[in-house]
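Note to self: keep these together.
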Amino acid sequence: MRSLSVWCVAPLALAAVGCGDDGPVLPSGLPRPLAGVYLDFGPAPEEDRFRALIGFPTRDVPGLESAIEDMYDPGKPEAFRKYMSVDTWMERHAPSESDIAAVEAWLTQHKMEIRRRSKNRLLLEFAGTVEQFNTAFDTELRDFERENPSKGGKPLRTFGALDPLRPPQKIIDLTSGVIAVDVPADTEPLPGEAGSIEKTPPEGQEQGVTPAQIARAYAIDKLHNEGQGYRGQGVKLGLVVGATFKTRDLQSFWQSFGITSRDNPEVVATADPISTRYLETTLDTEWAGAMAPEAELIAYEGPDARTLSILYAWNEAIAAGEVSVLSTSFAHREETEAAPIRHQYHEAARMGAALGMTIVVAGGDSARPDVPSSSPYVTCVGGTRLEFGGDGEVAREVAWSGSGSGRSRQFETPWWQEGVVLDAQGRRAVSDVALNASGDSTYWLYYLGEWERRSGTSFAAPVFAGLMATVNSRRLAQDKPVVGWLNRALYTDAKVQAAFRDITEGKTDDGNGEGFSAGRGWDYPTGWGAPLADKLAEALP
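Structure:
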């Protein structure tokens, strides 16, 4: 197996200059051939078009990380939960306007098109022909296919490279690398919605789990019924997704299960117009909305599920600074994504922590770490197998074999995991928490006018995001600030840890005979265990 491109990359930050045999090179997210994941079909036709992202480094990272530590330290009341505004972050930490303009000018000189800048200036999208890219970066783009992250989906055409990128030194000095290069997005018009809103629950409802069952299993219903009811009111809950959904599917799901006052999401198209609808996007939205039925949902949509699209949408959702909880279930195994991609997700997640966001990501279903869930500023949601008793109570919950978990390849052990994860080998360890994801206890969803049952951490993450939205709703009603970045409290506060049902049985299996077992306290497959919303709301400082 050939490894992905290797650069001079520190565990938590890219070096400004890569290292090559013939001098400086630019860090690149372009893949190299990787058995079973990336296949190389030779040089890409020079007339073919591409879209790409180039990244820019955050300014004053030590100052930013110090500020984040203070705002989540209960021992510093003058700073605790006093989050940064977007304007303050931009003033102190955004890349300079002049640096962006200089790179734009250089790209334009090579006759490439500047398509868009991200709101926080961490990313710039540009486009052109393969020949233009090859000339500017002194490399050769190659025709690649990559595995489709959706089971059963056709392989995806993309671009890779065998050679490093060697632009002029000024470009290497100003940027953090070319993060992703991909084929253009589909420009076909989005078909109109058809059909009607279904208000009848699925036949054989007992064969799959329902929103009411999940809300009871994780005590979300107790917050819904406490006092005047904390159902997400006053909270903005964001979802980073590829493509879009049918609103009639969403309403059919919600109304069939008795959620009759749930508004449709606000849709933010972050890049190219949307041309299709995805099952993943539909289920994320249905289940997050069901757990926090009065939260304002915002779907930040990329044109497709490719890394370029999801990474840009992720960055834009955080840079907007308008939600207090953000979730995504679109991810790839950490080992298949080059270091600049992992790093760029982390850059944006760190901004989210400074702004007071709880960022929740599905851990994946491969029993290995995923991107972006391995970032220390992200709460990674692993998977369990949930069993119900005759009265609908939780009879048993064990670690799910596919729970995305393990030791990160990219990130060092954060200080708050030291002394907790004893075999981390110096790496960030995931998962942090876990909820039902097993195929033995499938979730209902409604997609393109049909009821289906599916499983995976793709459900666990939006459920936990909805849970956190209800917690924030309660906090706002009590004149408390929203929770924000969760991980420090998870690993340092015994009261917070006690708000999770400890999962002590089960183990993961990555298909190669390797995995981790659940046990008392924190463990790789389930983190601190399964959340109990009412206890978590009481425990969080």
